Amino acid sequence: MSVYDTIVIGAGLTGLTAACRLAQAGQKVLLTALGEGALLLAPGCIDVLGFQPADSQQPVKDPLAQLDSFLSDNPDHPYRLLGKETLAAGLTAFQELVNRHGLNFQGDPHHNWHLPTTIGAVHPTCLAPASMAGGDLQKAAKVLIVGFRELRDFYPTLIADNLNSQSLGVQASALQLDAPPPVAGRVNITPIQLAHAFEDPLFRRRLVQAVAPHSKGVDKIGFPAVLGLAEHAGVLADLQKGLGKPVFEINTLPPSVPGRRLFEALRDAFLKAGGRLIIGGKILAGRIENGRVVEIRLETASRAKPLRAENIILATGGIFGGGLQTDASGRVWEPIFGLPLHAEDNRHRWFTRSFFASTGQPVANYGVMVNARFNPVDEAGQPVAENLFAAGAVLAHSEWTRGRTGDGLAVTTAYAIAEQLTRSAQ
Amino acid sequence: MSTETTLDDITRSIWEQVQFTADLCVKCNICTSHCPVANVTDLFPGPKYVGPQAQRFRNPKELSVDDSLDYCSGCGVCTMVCPHGVKVMEMNAKARYKLYRDKKPIPLRNRLLGRTELQGMLGSPFAPIANAVFQLRPVRILTEWVLGIHRDAPFPPFSFETFRGWFRGVYQKSPHRLKSEKKVVYFHGCSTNYYEPRVGKAALAVLEHNGFEVVVPEQVCCGLPLLSNAEFDAARHKACQNIASLVKYAREGYKIVGTSTSCTLSLKSDYRHILDIDTEDARLVAEQTYDICEFLLDLANAGELKTDFQPMEAVIPYHAPCQLKAHNMGLPAIDLLEMIPGVKIQLVQADCCGIAGTYGYKKEKYQIGMDVGRPLFEQVIASGSPIAICDSETCRWQIGHATGAKMLHPVELLAQAYGLDVNQG
Ligand SMILES: Cc1cc2nc3c(=O)[nH]c(=O)nc-3n(C[C@H](O)[C@H](O)[C@H](O)COP(=O)(O)OP(=O)(O)OC[C@H]3O[C@@H](n4cnc5c(N)ncnc54)[C@H](O)[C@@H]3O)c2cc1C
Q1: Nearest protein Cα to ligand 1, atom 11
Q2: CB distance B286–A37 less than 8 Å?
Q3: Domain check: are A277 and A405 in the same one?
Q4: Domain ends where: A220, A245, A270?
Q5: Are residues A400 and A286 in the same domain?
Q6: Does residue B29 sit at the A interface (CB-CB below 8 Å)?
Q7: ipTM score of complex
Q8: Last residue within a domain, chosen from B43, B76, B102
Q9: Residue A385 within any structural domain of the chain
């Protein structure tokens, strides 16, 4: 008897999405992760395809329409296993999921927002919180970018200058302020701490007083993405009311507040659906017998605890997430099951000579090879275990930096696997 | 794959030592963004800065670089959320030890708070008087002035009858006491002994009900309060006494079951990873130690737990203490308690209650502790439930103090659902 229907390993965007869907479909799910995934580090939007070809300067406007062209340049990318329909369905399902749990993600698979980044570059993304989508650069507007002296690495002048120099039709001006008390004068404040401060109405009132005199003649006002955490919707509405203009958020350096909101929404949705969660729960090893995973071992405080489930989803991320390990001798391995990998054990082949090479870095494509069901396979294409599934950044050929496909891949591969597992159970 | 030890194996074994996990840090700030303390006060810049980032400036031969370390509550949320295996809390505990060793004398107050056993030994025999006196406002104000223990910090009343006293005087003499082939060792900890013997009684009743004879060997304070007040030598002394007493049972395959999640965490992990007691005996004791809910849920999963529960219609808020989460085994109390027909456990979404052992008792930290716990208190109050559940004693006291809810250990609810009379032997 298995205690769980499915155990999901990894609490990044992939693992959380899969776990949520399965728990909501009535499965008994355990989500266990060594730590939190990349959600708090990435911008908290869902990038699906941002640049095609990868070295193009023109951000993609319609990611779905560009998919074929992307796949002809990157024939091995796991998007090939999904097809347009599943890709679109996965994105829509994700949007519905998070919007049912307190967020307000806007967008559709046939459209990219073009959002300003922390350095005033253009970030093409498919689904974005309404607060960030409000900063879309595709419509001409006069914008005021507000920053705080207390928050490092967010320079409104840099953002405004860079936006203005790209002839986007956007006219940006900058305002650098001292944050109101109790933040005023602090150094080393993190975006999360500032977001907490924004939840205080008095703080906001003072801020509105400081910004309002500078906002005459502008169409909208951009702030660093620190406009509240749990109370974000109220904070945003209150600021728009106080300033009498649309307000939007621009992502900061990590930790990302929108990423944190997304993490919390998914986590809460999962727990609400009866899911069991262990953050700090590293999986040490798994045992495969007769083509099935029969047991995985959780590293508890003093011993390995065996766990069993009908199905296991491996969502442990790539090299950064810990799903792949490497060492100085050039070895690359998947630490839990020792899965066959697409990888090279000659360290000199991990990287190209140019950091920004249009081909990307080979090492970023290393990962687990899968079949159409997302079962890990060996070099001959034979599945390693029929009840083991791999999704997200741990997959081979999933390099995300050039095409900006990381989040889309996470969400849609999680969706595809969850669909399979709930359908087969019915 | 070869079985020889490679340079990488050696590198990895070094990395696994707490101090060196600093090298695994990629400065992502996930820990800082989750730090309950850094989120409510400026006095603590956050685990990343004070932990892995400062670590590289910590020369064993030189003075500690950073005093703000003292504001770390030791809750361990940082270690838990770190995706790269950095032992942030453990690193900070060690650095705090060094801070006090090299730079500042440990205040009398901290020495007292670290000695829960001494408090119990002095207070318990005079419980009626001690409790009455310590409830007097002027006494608490004086204690705050003289010692720096906050006047509002939650001190539970001493129990006149200690758990050990009851165990020896009543339980062991009882003719109904179960004798069985199946035996477990019970580690009660100071709180059960001096303040809440009812938790220990409930544990015994539940274990017996499931056919286990319970052995209560010699034991002393687990040492965690000393450890978190930077008295490593004294903590190590306690640890060694416990290991020496418990290892005899561990060697015979007995499981050691505890009702205090912080005591069991010390036995499982802190002795080895913070106090550096890395002996075979320590490892054996660690391997055999179980939180009581963990133990009972394992039984249930093996189909060996009695399920003759009386139904109980209740939705009860439950807080999972930091010291329980650090066991990295999930939250067994929830699955266990939901086996009682009609019981629905409502997991409160909060990182920490703020008390963090002895942290919230200190004058300068009391308010920080209360601020940390606020989201938790609000949820408990909003639940409208007259009772709430938590596995860890100081957290129970803190939550009870802040919300007025009656606080239970999970095993107390189980005993109730089994319909057990916990005061008998
Ligand atoms: C700094 C940064 C910025 C990014 N920016 C973008 C962007 O702008 N656009 C874009 O498209 N993509 C971006 N990405 C990539 C994108 O975020 C990821 O591709 C996607 O989130 C992958 O999610 P994941 O869940 O597969 O893996 P991860 O988020 O890496 O999660 C892996 C999870 O597995 C856990 N884990 C690993 N090993 C074990 C184990 N043995 N046992 C238990 N748990 C384990 C980890 O603790 C973690 O919880 C960025 C990534 C990073 C790191």
Answers
A1: A406
A2: no
A3: yes
A4: A245
A5: yes
A6: yes
A7: 0.91
A8: B102
A9: yes
Q: Do B81 and A36 touch (CB under 8 A)?
A: yes
Contact B316/B345 with Cβ under 8 angstroms? yes
A414/A420 Cα distance (integer angstroms): 10
Residues A227 and A279 placed together within one structural domain of the fold: no
C-alpha distances out from residue A298 to A286, A303, B23, Å? 9, 8, 24
Give A320→chain B minimum CA distance, Å: 9
Nearest residue (by CA) to ligand 1, atom 12, is: A406
One domain, residues A237 and A273 = no
A390 near B CB under 8 A? no
pTM over 0.90: yes
- What is the domain extent for residue A73? 2-102+261-425
Same domain, A150 and A185: yes
Per-residue pLDDT of chain B (425 residues; tens, 9 = 90+): 444 566 556 655 665 677 778 888 988 888 998 999 998 888 898 999 888 888 877 777 777 667 888 999 999 999 999 988 899 998 888 888 888 888 788 888 889 889 988 888 888 898 899 988 888 999 999 999 988 999 999 988 999 999 999 999 998 888 888 889 999 999 999 999 999 999 999 999 999 999 999 999 999 999 999 998 989 999 999 999 999 999 999 999 999 999 999 999 999 999 998 999 989 999 999 999 999 999 999 999 999 999 999 999 999 999 999 999 999 999 999 999 999 999 999 999 998 999 988 899 999 999 999 999 999 999 999 999 999 999 999 999 999 999 999 999 999 999 999 999 887 65
Ligand 1, pocket-test mutation among A126, A407, A411, A412, most atoms within 8 A of CB: A407
Burial class (CB in 10 A: 0-12, 13-18, 19+), B261: buried
B216: contact with A, CB 8 A cutoff: no
User: Taking the CB of residue A139, how many other CB atoms lie within 10 A of it?
Assistant: 11
CB-nearest to B269 from A191, A277, A301 is: A301
Cα B211 versus chain centre, distance = 27
- Count up the domains in chain A and report the number: 2
Q: Is the C-beta atom of A43 inside 6 A of ligand 1?
A: yes
Q: Cβ contacts (< 8 Å) between A30 and chain B: which residues?
A: 330
Q: Which residues pair with A333 in a beta bridge?
A: A325
